[in-house]
User: Fold this.
Amino acid sequence: MENLQLLLDGFSVLFTLQNIGVTILGAVLGLIVGAMPGIGSLAGVALLLPLTFKFNPTTAIIMLGALYYSNMYGGAFSAILLNIPGDSPAVMTALDGYPMATQRKRPGQALLTSNMASFIGGTIGMIILTFMGPALADIGLKFGPAEMTALLLVAMTSIGWLVGENPTKGLLLTMFGILLASMGMDTLSGSPRYDFGSIYLLGGIPFTPFVIGVVGFAQVIKLMEERNKKTQVSIEKLTIKGSMITLHDFKRLFFPAVRSGFMGTFVGVLPGAGATTAAFMGYAAQKSFKNEEPLGTGAIEGIAACEAANNGAAAGAFAPLLALGIPGSGTGAVLLGGLMMWGLNPGPLLFTNSPDFAWGLIASLFLANIVTLMIAWGVIPFLIKILSVPTKLMIPIITVVCVVGSYSTSNSMYGVLIMFLSGVLGYVLTKCEYQTAPVLLAFVLAPLLESNMRKAFIISQGSLDIFFQKPISLVFIIILIAIMVFPVVRPLLIRLGLMKRKAS
Amino acid sequence: MKKLALIVLVLMVALVAPLFAQGGAEAASAGFAPSKDIEWVVTSSPGGGSDIYTRMISDIMTRLDVVAGQTFLVTNKTDGGGEVGRLQVSRVNAGNLANHTLLTFNSGDLMPMVKNTANRLENFTPIAIMAVDKQLLYIGEYSDYKNFDEVLDAVAAGKQVVIAGSKGDDIATYEKMIGELGVNQNQIAFITNDSTSAAITSILGGHVDLVMSKPAAADQYVVAGKLTPILALSKARFSGNLADAPTLSEVGDYDDVEVPVWRGVVGPKNMTAEAAAFWSDAFQAVSESDAWKNEYINKYKLVPEFRNHVEAQTYMAEFEADYLKTLGK
Assistant:
């Protein structure tokens, strides 16, 4: 149990007044930054990075790590209360969180569920990181282009769960999402696609403003329709006591959280896949398990699944970052840059050369987890007061936050313009009873799928064999075929008496 | 209601007031010296190589006190893959603003700019080149080949070899190399990644045969024994733990291949010659400082190579002309 000993050493590094102070500071900032739509961990970390030059490296990275991690907690707040995800991993949380808050009138419970699930998922991620960090990172390395393609194809099937009753619409929306994602410069060939001669479109459609627009601003437009409606939640429930979850609720959230925590950690380790992909996959996987209420109507299981997955992924992302020096995401890249500036070299030698630092950081994640949980709990009564703010005041406030968030992604009005346009698009889609989730999922997954698939074909010189020859890839292809074939085979199995007919 | 109105009014004043607080004093320049905040544009995201380079130089310049106490405002403009930022800088109007605007400009910026847009070097005022980087080819732990001779033998025998690299400058080096070796893109294939770290990830997992990288990104893996350099894409061997990698001319009857990756700084076209000379001297002071050598060059293993604004103009123009020729423009 050498790692445990090292972890305890890490705690001793951590427990200085300064380090604990910055952990709390980072956690609080992360919550705030995470809750604001559009301003995610990348912006937060990038903004704070110069401030940390004056600290010693261990203190600095502890603060940034806490911020990055607690960002995953905060994203759920605006998702649940306003149906506007604070960052992209929270998109799926809004699908169940917002109905639970408004239709089922249990906002406090929704927030508490998301906090608890985040805590469970994150703890699982950190425990795995502690004991298996470098080994996990090596497993992540085994996922090359072919394996990632197979995995992503399985992930794409999860769109099938999200399309609701009309598969044609779902297919259409998925194709549309892929089309939007393909605009811009193609990395593999270096040539521009669908840029229509505009220099802005050379960079494609930026992800964050697009998500804020489709989900957030569309919600604002919808609110404008309802601006004179009375607020939906009565004031009596807005206390901590009124937000406590029952034991039964806790049991409902526990297993989805644990499952998704494992899944999320693993997805976080993979190259290129991050918290957003993890949240999508956690939510989709939850569909195939027992849920007391159907997903999408405010089920606790839904919230638990996504939140645990995205926190697990945040913890998991540290494995390749620390053990191999490979950033899994934009935020990871900023952290990596910061580490190098402080003279530390993440990579195979980090754990040997600077064990204090590495284990101090991992220990700080545990602390940040607990601190964030407590703070998040404490602010629930304040947060749900937001729900009692009259709609017509919320509209301009949310609009401003969305605009600021979209601007901050690239310091230009291009992001804001995209956000407005996507907002109109999202609104139109929702009004015509098209789901927006397939568009978003396709938008996130398609570029990853395309680049990995094309790389796999370059390696295999155009042959399909590579997907069947590599063992990991083969496993996922088999899962894929099983998923695709199952709906067709199911009636047959029922008729043969091998499966019970599901009571509808 | 009144209370609300009062709060809103105070907030509005607080938000608007800072807009009036800035105001550059327009100083008549007899011999240029910065007289207001300097805006330095970086066309990539925070934390990346260019961003670190920019912030490091601005930090050293402030410490060396060569900018008359003015502040650097480093702005990341990443729209359009950086093209929007470059276009905006090139078009800054003549006057004080043009003399106080800088743009981080590398060979990896010039190539896509020239390839995909109508923007050209003539729309900028080159100020300096600070460092030069070159690439090497490395094998990983799972590679089938132990040195570059074996790679060439395998290609001659009809086997495909795959190199992973990053977009931008690596591609140009790859194309020059296969041109020199006389093989086509199927015999030695190149997989473009968004960043060198993604390319290194793929070789660490054994998914490709070789990786092309500049020394800095691969260094820690070489020290850890996970990557071994087998070919130096430059006119002379590298030093330190890269000294064992031969150049192309040592491997066989080929010319050495190198496509130097330069890191430089430019200003808008309308920057005055005086200002350009001032900035050039300021960058020279940085390049000669110990802080630069210790905190950047040695850490990131670049080759320091300073060129002032006159030399940089010639160098960059030649680079652009060569590249345009390869594009057939």
About this structure: Chain A has two domains: 2-469, 470-504. Strands of chain A lie at 184-185, 192-193. The first helix of chain A runs from residue 2 to 14. DSSP finds 22 helices and two strands in chain A.
